[in-house]
């Protein structure tokens, strides 16, 4: 055994010796000559901030922050350096942070969470960041960029010209500075995080005057700059260090890069305004800038603390070996979809990410900050995967480096047995199988994107869901398969056996559904098969994920077919038109009943109870006692779960009744 070499220690200065997160007041890292500033041309991305050689001051002392001290103590960090075995290979841990976490908890991420990973294991951390979102996902950077695209596609005469005064008012709304406070006191164990921050208004104006694309992008730029300023020039940093010139230089450089990113978006939007159409690939290029700006901000925050970090830009990967051809067709409707991103393409993405990480690791940075948006991919990333692409990117990064663990950081203490905002006695689930997690994700619970779970399963990488506001909490561990829940060969599960594993269950609700029941009077469905052809047309509409139909839970019997679709609020205008035409054709040969305002109640329970007949009985008894009108029942394979289509008006009461019944069994 030997201590970490000085070359590595210099990169990890600021978090090797941490008595309650008080950084050692040693000498600054040796100054390196500053690389000449190279201007970026208009056709490519900026050089990452991490390529600029900077000389850092000694990191700050956060001893004046009681909440931070107590939380570091909870993490078990001590004042000793980390020994490194002679033959120890470089290991990795991948941490994925959502948009609200990056926007509101960046100080905690750079001062506590990431250093704790490096101190405890002596490994490299790869952070995968979503685009910033200060309130909810619908008002985040990605949504604003999509709104800017929509505005650019509108005819200029239908969009009023916004004056400079209005623009100034628009971008001067409260931004991240109100949220970039020292880390809050962790919540009570088992309860969701409820930050004390005041909610921010939506980025868009709330009046009848729609902002122009340039105004929206300018608002995004101002928010990022103000948020970065509050982190990089944090009052505690100023109080600790007499000379803040280095941090000033870091901030100036960051603002220049953010401005260049936004200028690039404006140029693309100008072209969209001129053409009045946009291809899926161009839309991806615009949206990807949100993740790029968030990662630049995170890298600058690490640099301001003296932590060696480097940007890992995954928005321009070389995936030429992918099967399929990236669509270049310009589509008037920019919400049209592209080709499917199959597993063969994802394997090539993993190889490209592995190459990119190898290039970035030549300087042996302690932290790599990767954009959650990756590509270009066949078709469109937004349309192939959806808004959960950052989860998938994190899983692909974990596969690329054979990571020890994939951590998904959210603002709740892991996966809960129910939505704690709706069911007061919901409890955290310590362990859940990957199959159960995918079921919950498919039916209303925002846990992890199901394709991210699939990718982690391929390489047997464990997933942990943790709370960014309570990093010392245990979180929820997503195990690879039910058979491995008690696997003694897995170190992180060595003490758990099948006989001691507690009964696991979870309840989730998917709202905004409609149930369609089709009854054929002619049981032979006519000799020409016309009704079957009509049903096939509806299935084709459902296959288009961008149409918003989302057909699921198809149930058939002799002469009857029932299925569930998304309601009208989720369907595109084109999809709605095609659906109504198909339903009208069906009405000519069958009786069609559409039941609106339906919900789907999904219950999953642990694999140890799959052979127990009492679980389904208890669920049905609870629904009966709650007087719930069940319209359709779905029973999962091997008894792993049950689902019920019920009226939306009864969904909350039904979920609470089922949850209480199963809670009694588990105690």
Features:
single chain; 667 residues; alpha/beta; Carbamate kinase; VC0802-like; eight-stranded mixed sheet; 37% helix; globular
Structural overview:
The N terminus is likely disordered. Helix 5 runs antiparallel to helix 7, helix 11 packs across helix 13 and helix 18 packs across helix 19. A hairpin with a 2-residue loop joins strand 12 and strand 13. This protein has 667 residues and is α/β, with parallel strands linked by helices. The strands form three sheets. The chain has an eight-stranded mixed beta sheet with strand order 5-6-4-3-7-9-10-8, sandwiched between helices. It folds into two domains: 501 residues, Carbamate kinase, CATH 3.40.1160.10; 161 residues, VC0802-like. The chain is built from 19 helices and 16 strands.
Write the layout of secondary structure elements.
Blueprint: E1 2-3, H1 6-11, H2 66-74, E2 83-84, E3 92-97, H3 99-104, H4 106-121, E4 124-129, H5 141-153, H6 164-171, H7 213-232, H8 235-240, H9 245-275, H10 280-304, E5 309-312, H11 343-360, E6 367-371, H12 381-384, H13 389-401, E7 405-410, E8 431-433, H14 434-442, H15 450-458, E9 463-467, E10 476-479, E11 505-519, H16 530-543, E12 552-557, E13 560-566, H17 573-587, E14 591-605, H18 614-625, E15 632-635, E16 641-647, H19 651-666
Parallel strand pairs: 3-4, 3-7, 4-6, 5-6, 7-9, 8-10
Antiparallel strand pairs: 1-2, 9-10, 11-13, 11-14, 12-13, 14-16, 15-16
Helix pairs in contact: 5-7, 5-9, 5-10, 7-9, 7-10, 9-10, 11-13, 13-15, 14-15, 16-17, 18-19
